[in-house]
From TrEMBL:
Binding locations of GTP 2: 183-190, 230-234, 295-298
Protein name (database record): GTPase Der
Oligomer and partners: Associates with the 50S ribosomal subunit.
SUPFAM superfamilies: P-loop containing nucleoside triphosphate hydrolases
Binding residue positions for GTP 1: 10-17, 57-61, 120-123
CDD domains, per the entry: EngA1 (cd01894), EngA2 (cd01895)
Similarity-based family: Belongs to the TRAFAC class TrmE-Era-EngA-EngB-Septin-like GTPase superfamily. EngA (Der) GTPase family.
Occurrences of domain EngA-type G (ranges): 4-168, 177-352
Species whose genome carries this gene: Caldalkalibacillus uzonensis
Keyword hit for Cell wall biogenesis/degradation: no
Pfam families, per database record: KH_dom-like, MMR_HSR1
Function of the protein: GTPase that plays an essential role in the late steps of ribosome biogenesis.
């Protein structure tokens, strides 16, 4: 189920990124070794009371000409209108209402989406009167906040959450495998999608989705249904922000959220780029299944070592997704294209695999006997028992005498032991440690 999306708009320096960071807060990264993923100010998951949502700081999407501030904020506001369910329109109590604020307001009038005005930098209660100016924007009662002190955020998020849309029905049956095709421009995503749809044994029913931004295609192969979420296909008409790299990342992230399995497409001719890592890191944190697809395999000169070298390079760059199988394909010559959907099906099964509790506990006890936890300050970690609490991705809780005694490297050892017995190909595994 897609979470609601909240976008923050406002001219530069009103405090968008300060508030973004406050709202995102200490979202603990599930893996410490995924660089830059959770700290990015662009897009993040967040929570308030029992609401889960995603938040975009449109100020993080910078457009080409930096000095054209008005054009920037205009584009950023349009992006918010296109992408968000609720918009936080941020203004600055210290400067009061400015022409740039009015310009943004004019753009936001065009949308029916809820807009909440947040007046930032109300650092003490005496300054609350500053909000009255901003009634003139025409979006109802402004909410005073302070990024510096963190005050008012509760009221702001209450108001935002009131406007969240009703939770939509899940669009597809539970047994349909949803696939997101992700990658930088030009790696061959569209070509891959077309080649998959053109495969003989695939039956394409129809193209769904008019309310969504993505183009979803339903297909069936050997009795298994799939939905292809095509990020290359979902282009808006002539928006400037479309050409920016950050926006394409944003799009990829939205598709990742709706899928079970990510096809991370790389271009054999170009190798691996920083952006690939960010997207892969996001898919990993979101707990999706993952397959790395190296496309354009026809286009490079190969000898008997090329395959091994490529594999090693990928493993070096993507250490945090060492579980992801790698396929070398060509959308152009159709080489190995027929292996993609069966692999997706395999990964989807692993992603949803449950280990019986007694098998898990036998496995844990064997692992501990083989390699007992080291002592820390004279005390030793004791694992009482473990249980699998969920799937997609497989998630385990281990009950121990004292969670402080669990060392990162020992946790990794246990995950490796689980993977030795149950390879969990293509899926991340999560472990939570609790006191018992
Ligand atoms: P953005 O350009 O809208 O993302 O704004 P920033 O978050 O970068 O903030 C711009 C400046 O305003 C920075 O110097 C912040 O430290 C400052 N700032 C942000 N929030 C507050 C606040 O609540 N009170 C005060 N006094 N300053 C703030
Ligand atoms: P997208 O932007 O990721 O959707 O990439 P496209 O599918 O539009 O492909 C970008 C370019 O790469 C096009 O010129 C394609 O013809 C070319 N291309 C795609 N797949 C292959 C492939 O397997 N081999 C070769 N040689 N070219 C390919």
């Amino acid at each position: 189920m897609a979470k609601p999306v909240v976008a923050i708009v406002g001219r530069p320096n009103v405090g968008k990124s300060t508030i973004f960071n406050r709202i995102v807060g200490e979202r603990v990264s599930i893996v410490e070794d995924t660089p830059g993923v959770t700290r990015d100010r662009l897009y993040s998951s967040a929570g308030w009371l029992n609401h889960e949502f995603n938040i975009i700081d449109t100020g993080g999407i910078e457009l080409d000409d930096e000095d054209q501030i008005l054009r920037q904020v205009r584009e950023q506001a349009e992006l918010a209108i296109d992408e968000a369910n609720v918009i936080i329109f941020m203004v600055d109590a210290k400067t009061g209402l400015t022409p740039a604020d009015e310009e943004i307001a004019r753009i936001l009038y065009k949308t029916k989406k809820p807009v909440v005005v947040a007046v930032n930098k109300v650092d003490n209660p005496k300054q609350r009167d500053a909000i009255y100016d901003f009634y003139a924007l025409g979006f109802g009662e402004p909410v005073p906040i302070s990024g510096a002190h963190g005050t008012g955020l509760g009221d702001l998020l209450d108001k935002v959450a009131e406007s969240f849309p009703e939770q939509e029905e899940e669009e597809y049956d539970d047994d349909v495998i949803r696939i997101a095709v992700i990658g930088r421009p030009n790696v061959g995503k569209s070509s891959l999608v077309n080649a998959l749809l053109g495969e003989e044994r695939v039956i394409v029913s129809d193209v769904a989705g008019t309310t969504r931004d993505a183009i979803d295609t339903l297909l069936e192969r050997d009795g298994q249904s799939f939905v292809l979420i095509d990020t290359a296909g979902m282009r808006k008409r002539g928006k400037v922000y479309e050409k920016t790299e950050k926006y394409s990342v944003l799009r990829a992230m939205k598709a990742i959220e709706r899928c079970d399995v990510v096809l991370m497409v790389l271009n054999a001719e170009e190798g691996i780029r920083e952006q690939d890592k960010r997207i892969a890191g996001y898919a990993h944190e979101a707990g999706r299944g993952m397959i790395i697809v190296v496309n354009k395999w026809d286009a490079i000169t190969k000898d008997e070592r090329t395959h091994t070298m490529f594999t090693r390079q990928i493993r070096d760059h993507f250490q945090f997704i060492d579980y992801a199988p790698i396929l070398f394909v060509s959308a152009k010559t159709k080489q190995r294209m027929h292996t993609i959907l069966p692999k997706v099906q395999e990964v989807a099964e692993q992603h949803a695999l449950r280990i019986p509790t007694h098998v898990l506990n036998d496995l844990l006890m064997d692992a501990v006997t083989l390699n007992p936890p080291p002592t820390y300050k004279g005390r030793r970690l004791k694992i009482k028992y473990g249980t699998q609490v969920s799937v997609k991705p497989p998630t385990f809780v281990l009950f121990v005498n004292d969670p402080e005694l669990m060392h990162f490297s020992y946790e990794r050892y246990l995950i490796n032991k689980i993977r030795e017995a149950f390879p969990y190909q293509g899926t991340p595994i999560r472990i939570f440690i609790r006191q018992k």
